[in-house]
Design a protein that fits this description.
single chain, alpha+beta, Beta-Lactamase, Heat Shock Protein 90, 6-stranded antiparallel sheet, 5-stranded mixed sheet, elongated
Length: 417
Amino acid sequence: MSARPHEPRIETTPEAAPAPATPAEVEARLRQQVILSEFGVEALRGKDFDLLLQRATELCAQGMGAEYCKALEYLRREDTLLVRAGVGWKPDVIGHATIGADLASPAGFALKTGRPVISNHLADETRFRTPQLMADHGIRRAINVLIENRDGAFGVLEVDDSREGMFEEADIAFMQGFANLLGSAIERHRTEELLRASLARQDLLAREMSHRVKNSLAIVASLLTLQARSAEGEPAVSAALQDARSRVEAIATVHDQLWRQGDVEDRDGAGEAVPGEIDLATFLDKLILNLASGAPAHRLTCTTAPQKLSADLAIPIGLWVNELVTNALKYAYPIDRFPTGGEIRVRAEHEAGTLTVEVADDGVGLPAGFEIGRASKSLGMRVVGSLARQLGGTLTLPPTGQGTTFRLVVPLERGLG
């Protein structure tokens, strides 16, 4: 079971009531959620935990617009916190420097109480002392959140800055998202070690990992849903977060199929398990069913013959289909022209060493000057073009009498059984 995400409880000095968010602040929050969503995928697929910790500090500092960030690991015997990874610090800090883990230290307080800490005026701080490491770097303000998993506290994620400014309570949600993902990654890495030691069969390991990755992705999707609800007053932000959630759920569907099919269905002619393969028809059917549940006014159909596909191909194909179906649900059938909705069709066909995947509708068609790929103004269409390139496929828009058809032809020298 994955670690339960923290509910932020802020330990901070009293501040004046916040003013309404400016457009720049809204844009900054949106950028934070995009960064968090991207790191979520890295956290769930990364194999080197040290690199993952370092990446988390880099992205967290970037999202906060801060000079410094560090991931602190709790050393229980010494009752200290070791700087395990970080950005902005002097070369001899990472892997060597420690700070106290007692309640008089901001990071120690967050560790021992589980309560996030904001201190925007360390020089005037009466609750805590300023650790020597931070004093040496001229740190003026800091914000700390706990990293934990089911085995307890791993340590603390901290962002620091030597410049004047204010960390806000809204920053806690962003940082806690990183901490929760790191906690899940720690748990996953430990679970992998145990499984490698105890499981003799590789296919059983793959199934178990896929199950845990699916559950971890569900946590990411839940976090994005919560953030979207909190941003209901900002439609653009809410829509972007819902789109990110949909992409994460598409990847989760692949891992769900890997776990469920496993060695029960994925057998080759010799009766041995074929790890890392899923039935594309089952996968796309479930993906379309999930999308249809959120769009009852429309009719979504999927036509795909049973065929085995590697997870490395299924994930980008699923994301490609997810982007285009979501786009069609939004724009193909305007309610003023199609009050009863419309049909969206997904088809996948394997022939002569290629896989052809189509998403089609009978709606209003594409606007003038429509572009796919890097030149597109739409993030979704840039994702569609990027996934097509990743698959080494050919993307076309064959002419139709009405509506729009996207066709992707992917070479399958490897990956399809």
